[in-house]
Amino acid sequence: MTTLFISDLHLDAERPHITELFGRFLDAEARGADALYILGDLFEAWIGDDDPSATATFVADRLRVVADGGTPVWFMHGNRDFLVGQAFADRAGMAILPDPTVVDLYGKPVLLMHGDTLCTDDVAYQQFRAQTRDPVWQAQFLAQPLAARIAFAKQAREASKAHQSGLASQGTMETITDVAPAAVAAAFQQFGVETLIHGHTHRPAVHALDVDGRPRERIVLGDWYEQGSVLRVDSQGHRLEALA
Ligand code: OKV
Ligand code: MN
User: Which residues bind substrate (predicted)?
Assistant: First the structure.
């Protein structure tokens, strides 16, 4: 039996083949797994559960089949889809996990995060994050008409693109910054775990490191821009692999 971890699919109507790849992955693999963990950025953008998007409906329907088949589906917010709410989670049959969360994986405690909170050098992004994770901000945002929320997502997308193409000062926003080693060490210390799994940076890898004289492992999930990326864990170990 296997537990599956994915993140950073960035599903969007503009990349239908990735949504289809995700659907095939759910049918071929997630159905029958011990559990499916989605560690954030399932969607490229999310402006409220009332957004009538065909991609969202497809994803909810297909995830629901997995959950109804007896495979628990766990979802953690990413920096793009932090506004996914309980209404959408219910439609998809998934449960929302707080970031960070420690889960028991075949007898071993494992720390799960999206990964954006580890990018502490990205001061502008952390400010945006603090503001937009505030429940008062979220309630006010979600009370706005759909058109105003769409405009915000467009602005955020443009701000993100501008930073990525180096127009603005280097080292801010999303994928440009990698995790800060001190933040990684602090997370291992705070939770006392040997293993951390996260996404966000789009730098898939298994890193061995040492914190306080103890060997630790940081597993970084890959994005689904060109192909899929999945971490399969069972009682024997783990494999981080691409999915075409
Ligand atoms: C987060 C979303 C990108 C949603 C934007 C002011 C502006 C900072 C920013 C910080 C976050 C982008 C730039 C990101 C969410 C997207 C695209 C769609 C919610 C502003 C200051 F423009 F809104 F005023 N940010 N990043 N989206 O993490 O990449 O739908 S981001
Ligand atoms: Mn992210």
Answer: 79-80, 122, 160, 164, 200
